[in-house]
Request: fold
Amino acid sequence: MPEPNTNVGAMTVRKAGGLSRGVRVLRNLGIIIPLVVITLLVLTAIFAPLLAPHNPTENNMLARRLPPAFMTGGSADHLLGTDKLGRDNLSRLIYGGRVSLSVSLLAIAITASIGTFLGITAGYLGGRIDGFIMRVTDMALSFPALLLAMLLQIGIGPGFFTVVVALSILGWAGYARLIRGEALKLRNSDFVAQARIIGASPLRIMFRHIFPNVINSLLVIMTLQVGMMILMESALSYLGIGIPAPTPSWGSMVADGRGDLDSAWWISLFPGIAIGLVVLSGNFVGDWLRDKLDPRLRQL
Amino acid sequence: MARFVLIRVLQSIIALIGIMVLVFLLLRVSGDPVTLIRSPNMSEEQVQAIYHQMGLDKPLPQQFWLYLSELARGDLGTSLVKQRPVSEMIGDALPNTLKLGIPSFIIGMSLAFLLGMLAATRRDSIWDQGIKFLAVLGQALPGFWVAIMAILIFYQNLRWFPVGGMSTPAHYVLPVATMVFFMLPGMMRLVRSSMLDVLDTEYIKLARIKGLPERTVIWKHALRNALISPLTILGMLFAGIISGAVITEQIFNWPGMGRLAIEAVFGRDFPVVQAIVLIVAVMVMAMNLLVDIAYAYIDPQIRYQRS
Reply:
C-alpha cells in the first residue's frame, strides 16, 4: 500500500527541485519574450522619428496598396506595404504604437491615482463613506465604457484628451475595489493600531502607513491594465471615435483595411497582430509580476 | 429582504437621475444643436423660432425639467438628422440587437460553462491546457480584428457565410460568433476558477467520501455553488456585451442599436445618442438590481450583512 504514496512524493520532489535545464530555459522564455516585446514597443515609441522609414501621414498616390516586401510585387522600400492612400504601413505601425502607448500610460496614471485614493479612503474610513464609494464603484464597473466614450465624443469633440478621459472615466473602479479590499485588511493590523495610538491623523495613516503596503498590488493591476487600455483605445479608434485621422493608430489602421480585404488584406492584418502581441506580452508580464509580488491576487 | 430590495431600487433611481443630469449637461455644454439644422439663408426670426420650438431659449433647470417631463410621457425627442421620432428609430433597431444578442448570450454562456467545467474537472490535462491557451489568446486579440479576419477567411476566400445585413440565417453565423468571442474568454476563466475553488471545499470532499458518483458531485453539489461568482459579474459582463454589440453591428452592418448609436455620434444627432445612453443605463440598472436580488436570495450571508 505505501507504494503509490512514495511515488507521488518522488514526483513532487522532482517537480519542485530538479527541473531539467531545457524546461527552465523554456519557462524563462515565457517571461523574456514578453519583456522584449514591451521594451521594443517602448523604444520604437520613443525613437519613432528615427526608426520610421517614411512619414506616416504622407500620401503617395503612385504607390497605393503595395503588398509587403515578402510578397511578389512588394519592395524593400515599403517592408509591410502601403495602404489605400499610399502611406507606409510600417511607419504608421511605429507611430501608431506611440499613440496607443502614450494614451494608455496616461490613462493608467490617472485611473490608478483616483482608484487608489478612493480605495484607501473607503477601506480605511469604512462606514457610510465606504458604502457610498463602493456603490458608485459597482455602477462604474457595470456601465459600458464605449457608450460614455461616444457621449464624450459629442460632448467635448474628438482628440487625444477625449480618448484619455474616455478610458479614465470608468477605469478607476477596478483599482478602487481591489485597493479597498487591501486597505480593509491593513486597517486592523498592529502597525496601524500603533500609529493611531501615537496620534497619527487618518490622512497620515492612509498615505504613510497603508499606501506603501498596497504598492505591490497596485503595480500588478497597473501592469495588467496596459493590455486592457491598449485594447480599449484600439476599439475606439477602430470605430472612428478615437484619436482623429490622419494620426495613425492601430485600431483605425484595421478599420482602413476593412474596405480592401479582397485586394489588400495586409493593411488590416499587421496592426491586429501588433495589438495582440503587445496585449499578450503585457498580460504575461502582469501575471509574472503578480506571482512575484502578490500571489494572493492570484484568484482574481 | 423587502427592505434590502427597496434600498437597492431607491439607489438605482438616484443613480439614474445622476446619469440623466450628466448626459443633459454634457450635451448642452457641447454646443448649439441649432447650428446643425439652420441653413444659411434663414432669417433671424426663423432661427429664433427654432430655439423657441426646441425650448432652448429657457434657463437650464427649466430645460431639464421639460426634458424630464417629456421622458415621463415616453417622448424621447426627434432625431435632428432623420427628422423622425427617436422612439420609432429605437423601436426599429432594438429587436435587431436582441436577435443578435440573445442567441449570442445563450451560446456564449453555454460554451463558457461547458469549457470552464471541462477545464476545472480535468485540471492540468490537455483539455485544460488548450482551454487556458484559448482564453489567454482570446483576451489579448482585439475582437474587431478577429471578426475582420473571419470575414477575410470565411467570406472573402471560402465563401462559406455571407456578410452584411441579416436577411438569412447564414447571415447570423459570423456576427454571433464575433459576439461569442467577446464574452467567452473572461467567462470561461471565471467558471474554471470558481469551479476549482468549490471542488477544493470540505463539503465536496465529504460528498466524495460518502461515495456519491462523481457525476452527482460535479453537476449537483459543485455546479450550484460554482454559479455564485459568475452571477456576481453578470453586471460587468453585460457592459461588455453592449460594447461588443456596438462593435459587431458596426463590422457586419447590422441594423441594431449599436450601429444607430455610432451613426448618431457621427451625425452629432444629440437626441438619439441621449436616448440610447438612457435606455442602456436603465437596462444596466435593472440588470444589477436583478443580480443583487438573485445574489441575496441565493446567499443568505449577503442578505443579513447588508441589511
About this structure: DSSP finds eleven helices and no strands in chain A. The interface with chain B takes residues 135, 138-139, 141-148, 150-157, 227, 231, 234-235, 238-241, 251, 254-255, 257-258, 261-262, 265, 268-269, 271-272, 275-276, 279-280, 283, 299 of chain A (CB under 8 Å).
